[in-house]
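QA checklist item 7 of 12: single-chain prediction sanity check.
[x] sequence parsed
[x] length recorded as 789
[x] structure emitted
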Amino acid sequence: MKNRLYRAITRGLACGALAALSLSHTAALSAQTAPSYTWNNVRIVAGGYVDGIIAHPKQQGLFYARTDVGGAYRYDSSNKKWIALNDWVSSGNQGGIESIAIDPNNANMLYLMTGLYVSRWSSPGQLLVSSDQGKSFTAYTMNFRVGGNDDGRNTGERLQVDPNDGSVLFYGTTNATYNTSSSGPLQIAGQDGLWTSKDKGATWSQVSGFTALTNDGTGEGVTFIAFAPAGETAGTPTKTIYVGVSTATAATNAATLYVSTDGGVTWNAVPGGPSNELPQRGQLGPDGNLYITYGNSKDSNGNYTYAIGPNGLNMGAVWKYDTTKHVWADITPKDPINYASGYSGVSVDPSHPGTVVVMTMDHWYPMDTMYRTTDGGNSWTDVGGATQNGVPPTTGTYAIRDASLSPWMIPPGQKQPGFGNWGEVVIDPFNSAHAMYGWGGGIWTTYDLTDADAGKPTYWSVGASGIEETAVLTLVSPTSAPHLISGLGDVCGFVHVSLTSPPPQQGVPLCNGGDGNGTGIDYAKYAPSTIVRVGAGGDNTLGTLSHDGGSTWTVFASKANSTNGGGTVAISGDGKTIVWAPTDIAPVISNDNGASWTTANGNGLPSLPVGVQVVSDGASGNVFYAFDQGNGVFYSSTDKGVSWHVAYTGLPKADPSYQHSQATAVTGVPGEAKAGDVWIATPNGLFRSITYGASWSQVDAGSITVANSIGFGKAITGSHYPTVYLSGTVNGITGVFRSTNVGATWVQINDTLHQWGGAGLVVGDPRTFGTVYIGPDEARGVIYGTSAN
C-alpha cells in the first residue's frame, strides 16, 4: 500500500512496581466449552496493493494474486471470487508475499516467498510450499530476510520453478547492504544473490557462480527469473535461464540481464540493452523475445538516483531481447503527453506471438495506463485512453470502468474511477480477451481486451471480490447509529452502515475524499451520535466531527498548529470537549468543535508529552486519560481536560513505536460499569484500575503474559459488566479470548485456521452479545466474529 502503517517489532520492555489493588478474580483459561464462532470480513472489497498476479498455463481459471502485507489469494473462477490463503499464519511477517511461483506442469504446486522487510530487526523469510493449491502449507525458514512490503515489491517474479523439472527452484534476493551497527540495516551478511533448491524448496544452496549483486543497497537485486525451455529435454533441468539484475552498477554498465546456459552454474551479462535503467519485470514470449520493463529516477540536477518503485520512478522504458538472434530493440510506447514515468507490469499472450501488454508506473498525471501491442512492440494502443480523468470520450479506444462492487472507489464528482496506479498485469492464457491487473487499490478485470485492437473501448469491472487488504489502525463500535466505524491505512476508513455490503463512498465522510490514514476515533458516551475522527496524509484533512452518527461530517476549522495530524482522539460524554493527541505536538483541547485549541496542561505540567494515547472514561462524561507507554506514566483529568495530573508512574514501559494495540491499549469500560474503571493492554500483560488510574493491578500475571488489545462488548444475560475481549497470550496460547465474568475466566474464540498474522485490535459490539471486531496484524481488512452462544 502507498503509505502502509505497520507495527514495529517490540523491544526493551520493562515493568515497574505496581500499587496493590484488591481483586477477587484470578484469570485462567476456562474449562467450559469454547463458544463456536463464525468469522467473516467486513465487506470493503480491496483497498490495498495487489503487486502480482500469475496464471497457471495448464489449468484454466487458476490464478494467484499476491499482496504486500495482506497475504496471497487463489481465484475461484466458478464464483469469480478470491480465496485468502494465509489466514492461518500466526505472524504478520508471513503476510508479506514477495513472490509467487507455480509449477507449470503440476497445477497443485504453489510456492510463496514471504516476509515483510529486509531490515535487521525483521524475522528471516519463509517459503510456504503447498501441494494442494494453497489449502495447506509447509513452511521452510530461509537464510535471508524478505521484503514483501519494502520498496521494489512491484518487481518480479523472482521465485520460479523450472518448467522442465518441477523439483528445481531458483530465487533471487534483494541487493541489500550490510551493517552490523545496532541502528543499521539490513540483510544478513553474505546472503545476497541467487539461490536454488533441487527438492521443491525443502533445502536451498547459494549459487556461487552468480556474482552480479553488489551488496551496496542500490537497486532491487534480482527482479525476475525467466527459463527458456524451447528445444530442451523435458524432465531434465533447463539449461538456459535469464535473470534481471537491478543495481546502480548494472544500470550504469547496461548489464542488467544475465544468462546461464548450463542450468545456473555459471552466469554472464548479456551485452546491449538500455543504459541507466533498472529492470522491473521480464517475460519470455512465444516469439522467442524476452520482454522487459524498466524504471529509474533523476534528481533536479539530472543525476541518477536509482528509484526502484513503486514510488519515485520518473523515467522508464520497454525493451525486448531476441533470445535466438541475440538482438536488443527499444520498443517503449510513445506517451502522448510526454509525462516522465516508469514501466513495470508486463504480460505476454502465450497464444499469440508478439502480443504483449505493459503497464506504466508513477504516471501520476493523469494516471497510470496500459499499452497493448500485437506486433512485438512496433506499434501500441493506449488501452486506458482519456478516461483516466473519469470522463470517457465519445469515440476511440478507451476504458470504461464499473465500480459497483466497490462504489467507494469513485471519487466525488466523477462518473467512474481512473485506471489506477502501480499496475501489474496478466493475460489469461486460455482467453486472450480476458485480463486482470492489480494496482494500489485492488484488481480490475476485463473480458474484451482484444476490442482495443480494433480501436474499440474496453469494459472493466472491479475484479477483487474476496480480497480484503486494508490495514486496520483503529475501530470503534458506538452504542447507536452504525455498529462499526473504522480507521484504515491508505483509504482512511469508513462508516460501516452494513457489514456485508461495501461502503458507498471513498473515504467520505471520514476524509473528505482524500486517502490517507484514519488513526483515531471516539464517540460521546451520553450522546453517541456525536463522533470524532482524526487522521493523517491524504488531502491533509486532519480531523472531522459528526453529530448525526456519521451521516455528515464537519472538518476541524483549525489544525491546532499540527502539520502531521494523526494520533489518537477522545471526546467527552456530552460531546462538547475534544482531546486530541497528534503525532507532532503536545495534546490539545477544543470546546468549540475543533475551531480553536489549547494545550493540555495543569498542576505543574507545562503540557502532556507528545505521542501519548488519549481516551475518554467509559462511564464519566468529564474524565479523560492519557498514557505515555514509552515511560509507563498514566495521566488523568477529571474536569473535561482543563487540568491534568500524573496519576501513576509505575506501569510497564514499551517502545513508543510499539503499534500493536495503539487504538485499544487504554480502554475506559463503557455501559453500566462504574466511572474510573480503566484497563491497559501491554506487551507485559493486562492491567486494570478502578481508581481513575491512581492504582493498578496486573490481571493474573501467571496466566496472561501478553496483552495486545482489550475491548468490551455487550454483557451476557444476567450480568451488568460488559463482555471482555482480549487479544494476547493466556497460559501460553496466543489468540483471541472472551470473558463474561470480568476476567475471572477466559475462553479462546478463534482457532488455528483464523489467526490473520495475529489480532492487533479487538473491539466488542455494545449492542450484540458475542460480536467482536478484529483488526489483524496481517492487513486482511476488518474481521468480525459472531457467535450463537
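[x] summary fact logged: DSSP finds one helix and 56 strands in the chain.
[ ] second reviewer sign-off
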